[in-house]
Amino acid sequence: MGFLWDSLVSALYLAFSLNKELYEIVLVSLKVSSSSTIIASIFGVPLGMIIAFETFPGKRLLITILNTMLALPTVAIGLFVYALISRRGIFGPLDLLYSQNAIILGQVILITPVVATFTIAAVNHIDTRYRKTALTLGANRRQATFVVFREARYGIVAAVVAAFGRVISEVGISMMLGGNAKGFTRTITTAMALEYDKGEFVLAVALGVILLAISFGLNLLFHVLQGRGVK
Q1: Residue 206 and residue 192: Cα distance in Å, rounded?
Q2: pLDDT of residue 230
Q3: Please, what is the Cα angle at 164 between 96 and 204, to 5 degrees?
Q4: Which residues of the chain have pLDDT under 50?
Q5: d(Cα 115, Cα 47) in Å, to the nearest integer?
Q6: What is the pLDDT of residue 209?
Q7: Rounded CA gap, 102 and 36, in Å?
Q8: For helices 100-124 and 20-53, what crossing angle results, to 10°?
Q9: What's the gap between Cα 177 and its chain centre?
Q10: DSSP 127
Q11: What is the model's pLDDT at position 99?
Q12: How far does Cα 212 stand from its chain's mean position?
């Protein structure tokens, strides 16, 4: 217990001492996670709204596939993307492997189903009469869709927040596609794994505290937005 307490005290001191290495790691994590969340939202939100609004053959199967992909292991995605961007892969000439762009690509694949699925849930929660009334009053399909989007905005933002929380804490994709290069592709989770293997617990605990703080803030924001969406 004393060892844990000493490590925690040292970690808190390190976190508040503006340690350069620590904050480089945090900044890399925030950069790749934010980028992947933005890209996934650009694709996932429209996809979710289209699936929610339209009726087409295979719709239930597509929703089932998206729900299944929510539990897709990060190492499986890492392996799949690695096969595509390695030297012998289709996109090998682009030289993406062990770069931040490779991590972003893998994370986009990971969380696009999260954004789409949560968007579907948010839109389905809105009374269908909103869209029907807008169409009856002369709105075109795009305008009617925007009306529903406004009503479901808190749920959609909550979907984006949940997706960011998913990627900020993942380790498999970052390790396999980024290579854990210091100052370039080393993220919070990969650095924690490395420091643990080295037996250096102070930096690992400090990063864990920061990750917990980020996760707590995201969950707090998520629940606030969910509450507003319910109203």
Answers
A1: 9
A2: 53
A3: 80
A4: none
A5: 9
A6: 84
A7: 10
A8: 40
A9: 16
A10: -
A11: 94
A12: 15
Tokens of 88: 């012998």
36, containing H or E segment: helix 20-53
Q: According to the model, what pLDDT value does residue 2 have? A: 56
| pLDDT in the model for residue 29 | 94
Alpha-carbon distance of 143 to 163, in angstroms, equals 27
Q: Which amino acid is at 9?
A: V
Whose tokens are 């509450």? That residue is 227
Count of other CB atoms within 10 angstroms of residue 108: 25
Q: Nearest CA to 113 among 73, 165, 69? A: 69
- What pLDDT score was predicted for residue 83? 93
Cβ neighbour number for residue 10 with a 10 Å cutoff: 15
- Contact between residue 163 and residue 40 where contact means Cβ atoms under 8 Å apart: yes
- Give me the domains of the chain, ranges plus CATH numbers: 20-230 (1.10.3720.10)
Q: What is the pLDDT of residue 11?
A: 65
Distance between CA atoms of residues 226 and 145, nearest Å? 21
The model's pLDDT over 136-167, given as tens digits with 9 standing for 90+, comes to 777 777 777 788 888 888 889 889 998 999 99
**pTM, two decimal places:** 0.88
